[in-house]
Amino acid sequence: MALIVQKYGGTSVGSTERIRNVARRVAHYRKQGHDVVVVVSAMAGETNRLLGLAKELSERPDPRELDVIAATGEQVTIGLLAIALQEMGVPARSYTGGQVRILTDDAYTKARILEIDESRMRADLKAGKVVIVAGFQGVDKDGNITTLGRGGSDTSGVALAAALKADECQIYTDVDGVYTTDPRIVPEARRLDTITFEEMLELASQGSKVLQIRSVEFAGKYLVKLRVLSSLDDPESNAPGTLITFEEDDKMEQAIISGIAFNRDEAKISVMGVPDKPGIAYAILGPVAAANLDVDMIVQNIGASGHTDFSFTVNRNEYQKTLDVLSAARGKNFEAREIIGDNRIAKVSVVGIGMRSHVGLASKMFKALADEGINIQMISTSEIKIAVVIDEKYLELAVRVLHKAFELEQGG
Ligand code: ASP
Ligand code: MG
Questions:
Q1: Quick check: helix, strand or coil at residue 362?
Q2: Where would I find the beta strands (DSSP E) of 72-149?
Q3: Does domain 260-405 bear CATH number 3.40.50.300?
Q4: Ligand 1 center from residue 47 Cα (angstroms)
Q5: How far is the CA of 236 from the centre of ligand 1 (A)?
Q6: Within the chain, which residue ranges are assigned CATH 3.30.2130.10?
Q7: pTM greater than 0.85 (yes/no)
Q8: 211-225, 333-347, 366-380: which has the minimum mean pLDDT?
Q9: Residue 401 burial (10 A CB sphere; 0-12, 13-18, 19+)
Q10: With a 6 A CB cut-off, is 108 part of the ligand 1 pocket?
């Protein structure tokens, strides 16, 4: 018998019919003898609707009141799920974040969890009840309602699993696991049985939006075993989903590359003809950092006749702002011949922990792209990933040829 925390997202509880389906799944786990704690999101679209109401009344609503409003979405779904379970003869009790006492700081709309009191949940589990907890919310030390930031129910699920030392935290969503790449681009993409925590972080940060990245980091910190599963399958199907592991040994027999990640949310900026001297990177990126703009890849060319070119990528929706910051800093912090940018780029990465012990993967990647005439504009590498920036119009082609080059459709 195991203790399982199950988290269901907005689509999974998007209608009473779907909530009944969730209840069936919970009942199925119970029948197998497991203790179950369920964390739910608000019904799909509901948080947006609630926050939209506040925006109708004010351009800059008080964050404390926004949290009071937004937290109601989850309060509805916990009650509905409890009723659906009781209707099936399964004893269940719902709790808001404040009732459990999920203690957070007081950073409204983006609060961080400080402490979770497990005593009420433990008592209910002991009495044979299913415990249902509202995701996305907590309470500060003065009793104010707080929320954890959009998508925060994933974090609630992982945090509860950590506090309860659950055997597994199951994240139910509308896909049945983590794939080698987006199946909408590569129909042969395969569901992975396991992926390591580090690989998942790479895939999540690269835009496979299966899991909120903060929740993955949280799981890593507290060694919570995460499993991604579909809530749309038959509740009794026992589909395995994808397990996010900490043990690399399990993966040794598998493919060297786990997946192809990509990201269309970036833009490239090049500062051309800057003096090739100490301090130039700081002179350019200092003002960018001071404006709170996140920089991803950075490339500086080898200097020639005392000058060099300096390129980096930023979030696409911060592209214009970054250009503005740089033109304000030019002539003041640094001299440059020209500042140019391109917001029609994409980043494609091959990810895999097996890379650590294998050489020659970069050349395989570059050859596959070269064979299709795809020009690489920037390259960056880490122990477990090689990422390139290319023209956005070749993104889908690049993902397809890389998926094929690394034989990801075959399961290693
Ligand atoms: N309901 C919240 C949101 O839409 C939290 C969540 O779904 O994870 O952001
Ligand atoms: Mg979500």
A1: helix
A2: 92-95, 102-104, 113-116, 130-134, 137-139, 145-147
A3: no
A4: 6
A5: 26
A6: 260-405
A7: no
A8: 211-225
A9: buried
A10: no
